[in-house]
């Protein structure tokens, strides 16, 4: 459809019809809906009229080829100009084949697999009638008390940007009109939602614009540079103004400075929430502020449809602002080919053939293997088949391993840990007992578990959080395992048996006690549909762990926030002239994380020689080659994620102790040595100055190379202008 055709539709639209395009409603409001749609936010009394539904622009949470076709057909019958609906839903890490949660995918450091996971998610969703997914979520996170860290890929802006690009590529492909197995992506939550004070969801976010641009904005920009079609505004304030009414953040930065001319959708109710935030005295002012800020679609509240007409007729809001927003919505419908093919990829026959196919499940299993992180292994893993195993814990036989954003994923179809281990160990070697629930238990359950453990040669403890304990509105002030699980671990560890803890959780936990009591700890996160198979493959050595953390694990919640790319302070602990007491430290725990960014063990072992630089000085436009010889000193083939960090020793503003600038994943045969090469460029040394100029400064730098952010070898170099 040509652009002028869109303009001619716009010219025919009444003001009411234009404004109704801004209304996004959940499925239950629509004729043809079979079941309740996705309800992920507070449902206020909506005051919706038939006319509003007839003219609304998009649906939230519909899926299923039959249902979506029914909804679209009914809508096209009722809509005067035959403008099709956009069908939008949260497909964050899988549609029905559920992949590990994004914080786990982040630990794979594997962009190809990340892209593949979102391509498969898009295919399953599009076949089921979905046009747009509310993903990727690229919020940078540093506070594990926040329940939504599981949706993020972690604490580093460079790595988050790489994943943002990979997910958008997978969701959208190259041409949304032609490739109906893809969906439009919607990067979220703009901006800096992950910096909620106290890790308490929806709480205040307040930071300098320089910090915002340096750490929190890069991944959104990367998603948009990759062509992401939509942006979702966050619930939180940014510099004192809620994102959905923040003209400086949205219209000035996102639209004018970055040139984003796609659709901006508010998060659920976020337009109306300008009122409780205290920046709008009512829905009319909320509507005015959000529209002037640049929000096109209002999700699940009705400030726009109730008040925009009056604001336009009263001259407070110009109709060209309305027309711009309508055109952005019509343009995405055109890009998706909906005017010609309103049902797009919805196909009941293909739903049966493609969804949860073996190919899709194999991809989920592969990514789950790559996403698990081996945190500790005192020579108990890999396990030998035939050993008597007692599998104990609330996640021994539990399908709640998909995470809080699995929506259409089926817990019943998830491979539980018991099933996976039975396949690898043999049923005759395996006994199992719950020992306790996630957050409660009985003496009998404990006794039964201890009895099994007594009889076993190895105990596998499957512990963790239920999916309700993280995700949206899932903030926790105590990030340890629930007490009953800690008691189970304490009782089991007293038996003196080799004890392996497998963790199912959505955040970095305080694992201080677990790390002392267990002989091995495998962080499995919420591993998705194929979790049981993937974990068993790792425990029994059919796969070699390769995951590396992308979010630091604190010693305890009192240490939060702890992250690798922190500043040195004026009184750094451990400096040559540091005093005993008057330095930046805690009296009771180390400053370093319990498990740092980039950390993860494998069944192989690697040695790194000193990095060699091709030059000790770097000029703009030139490069320095950084070469490191790495040897697999074990008997086992293994994959290593070699990480390159840089430190600017003296900037115009303080600069982080380390910044990840590159990495490479390489497989080494037993005994194999490889020369790993990186190329350093001046562009990688640029940062936001106090005047927000993005540039590098001449001076001394250190380059670090290592298996994680804490164990590195270094060389210095000088940047000269
Ligand atoms: C929720 C979430 C957002 C999601 C939206 C629609 O409140 O904050 O991530 O996409 O509502 O379900």
TrEMBL record:
Q: Which UniProt keywords apply?
A: Glycosidase, Hydrolase, Signal
Tell me the ranges covered by the Fibronectin type III-like domain, including all copies.
640-709
Superkingdom, natural source: Bacteria
Broadest EC class assigned to this enzyme: hydrolase
As its record notes, the protein acts as a catalyst of: Hydrolysis of terminal, non-reducing beta-D-glucosyl residues with release of beta-D-glucose
The EC number(s) attached to this protein equal: 3.2.1.21
The protein's matches in InterPro entries, at most eight in alphabetical order, are given as: Cellulose_Degrad_GH3 (IPR051915), Fn3-like (IPR026891), GH (IPR017853), Glyco_hydro_3_AS (IPR019800), Glyco_hydro_3_C (IPR002772), Glyco_hydro_3_C_sf (IPR036881), Glyco_hydro_3_N (IPR001764), Glyco_hydro_3_N_sf (IPR036962)
Q: Please provide an example of a Pfam family that matches this protein in its UniProt record.
A: Glyco_hydro_3
MF annotations from Gene Ontology: hydrolase activity
What family name appears in the similarity comment? Belongs to the glycosyl hydrolase 3 family.
Q: Which PANTHER family match?
A: LYSOSOMAL BETA GLUCOSIDASE (PTHR30620:SF16), PERIPLASMIC BETA-GLUCOSIDASE-RELATED (PTHR30620)
The protein's name in its UniProt record: beta-glucosidase
Q: Which organism is it from?
A: Fictibacillus fluitans
- The organism's taxonomic lineage, starting at the top: Bacteria, Bacillati, Bacillota, Bacilli, Bacillales
């Amino acid at each position: 459809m040509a652009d002028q055709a869109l303009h001619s539709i716009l010219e025919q639209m009444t003001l009411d019809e234009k404004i109704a395009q801004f209304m996004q409603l959940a499925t239950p409001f629509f004729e043809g809906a079979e079941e309740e749609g996705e309800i992920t936010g507070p449902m206020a009394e909506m005051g919706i009229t038939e006319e509003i539904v007839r003219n609304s622009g998009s649906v939230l949470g519909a899926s299923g080829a039959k249902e979506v076709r029914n909804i679209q057909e009914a809508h096209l019958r009722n809509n005067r100009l035959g403008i099709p609906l956009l069908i939008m839903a949260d497909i964050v890490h899988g549609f029905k084949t559920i992949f590990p949660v994004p914080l786990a995918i982040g630990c794979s450091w594997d962009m190809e697999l990340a892209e593949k996971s979102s391509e498969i998610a898009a295919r399953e969703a599009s076949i089921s009638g979905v046009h747009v997914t509310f993903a990727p979520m690229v919020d940078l996170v540093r506070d594990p008390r926040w329940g939504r860290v599981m949706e993020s890929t972690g604490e580093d802006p460079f790595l988050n940007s790489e994943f943002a690009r990979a997910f958008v590529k997978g969701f959208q492909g190259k041409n949304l009109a032609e490739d109906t197995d893809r969906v439009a992506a919607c990067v979220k939550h703009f901006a800096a939602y992950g910096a909620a004070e106290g890790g308490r969801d929806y709480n205040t976010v307040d930071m300098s614009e320089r910090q915002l641009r340096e750490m929190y904005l890069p991944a959104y920009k990367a998603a948009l540079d990759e062509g992401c079609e939509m942006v979702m505004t966050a619930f939180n304030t940014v510099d004192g103004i809620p994102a959905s009414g923040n003209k400086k953040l949205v219209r000035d930065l996102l639209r004018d400075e970055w040139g984003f001319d796609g659709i901006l959708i508010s998060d659920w109710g976020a337009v109306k929430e300008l009122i409780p935030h205290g920046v709008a005295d009512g829905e009319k002012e909320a509507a005015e502020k959000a529209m002037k800020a640049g929000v096109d679609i209002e999700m699940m509240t009705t400030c726009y449809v109730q008040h925009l007409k009056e604001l336009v007729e009263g001259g407070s809001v110009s109709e060209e602002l309305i027309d711009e927003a309508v055109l952005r919505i019509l343009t995405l419908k055109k890009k998706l080919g909906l005017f010609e093919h309103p049902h797009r990829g919805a196909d009941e026959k293909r739903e049966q053939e493609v969804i949860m196919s073996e190919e899709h499940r194999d991809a989920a299993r592969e990514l789950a293997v790559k996403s698990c992180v081996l945190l500790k292994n005192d020579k108990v893993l890999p396990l030998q088949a035939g050993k008597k195993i007692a599998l104990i814990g609330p996640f021994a036989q539990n399908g709640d391993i998909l995470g809080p954003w699995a929506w259409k994923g089926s817990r019943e179809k998830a491979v539980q840990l018991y099933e996976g281990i039975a396949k690898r160990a043999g049923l005759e070697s395996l006994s199992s007992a719950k020992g306790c629930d996630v957050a409660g238990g009985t003496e009998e359950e404990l006794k039964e578990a201890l009895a099994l453990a007594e009889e076993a040669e190895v105990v596998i403890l499957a512990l963790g959080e239920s999916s309700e304990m993280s995700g949206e509105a899932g903030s926790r002030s105590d990030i340890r395992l629930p007490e009953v699980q800690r008691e189970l671990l304490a009782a089991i560890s007293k038996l003196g048996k080799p004890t392996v803890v497998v963790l199912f959780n959505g955040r970095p936990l305080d694992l201080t006690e677990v790390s002392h009591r267990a002989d091995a700890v495998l962080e499995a996160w919420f591993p998705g549909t194929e979790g049981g198979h993937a974990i068993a493959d790792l425990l029994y050595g059919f796969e070699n762990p390769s995951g590396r953390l992308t979010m630091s694990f604190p010693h305890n919640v009192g240490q939060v926030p702890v992250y690798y790319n922190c500043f040195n302070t004026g009184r750094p602990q451990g400096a040559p002239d540091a005093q005993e007491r008057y330095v930046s430290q805690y009296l009771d725990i180390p400053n370093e994380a319990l498990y740092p960014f980039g950390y993860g063990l494998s069944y192989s072992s690697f040695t790194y020689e000193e990095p060699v630089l091709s030059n000790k000085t770097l000029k703009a436009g030139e490069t320095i080659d950084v070469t490191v010889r790495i040897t697999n000193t074990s008997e086992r083939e293994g994959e290593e994620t070699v990480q390159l960090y840089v430190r600017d020793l003296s900037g115009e503003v303080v600069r982080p102790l380390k910044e990840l600038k590159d990495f490479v994943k390489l497989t080494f045969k037993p005994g194999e040595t490889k020369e790993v090469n990186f190329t350093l460029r001046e562009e990688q040394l640029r940062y936001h100055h106090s005047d927000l100029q993005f540039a590098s400064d001449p001076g001394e730098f250190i380059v670090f190379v290592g298996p994680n952010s804490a164990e590195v070898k270094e060389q210095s170099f000088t940047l000269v202008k």
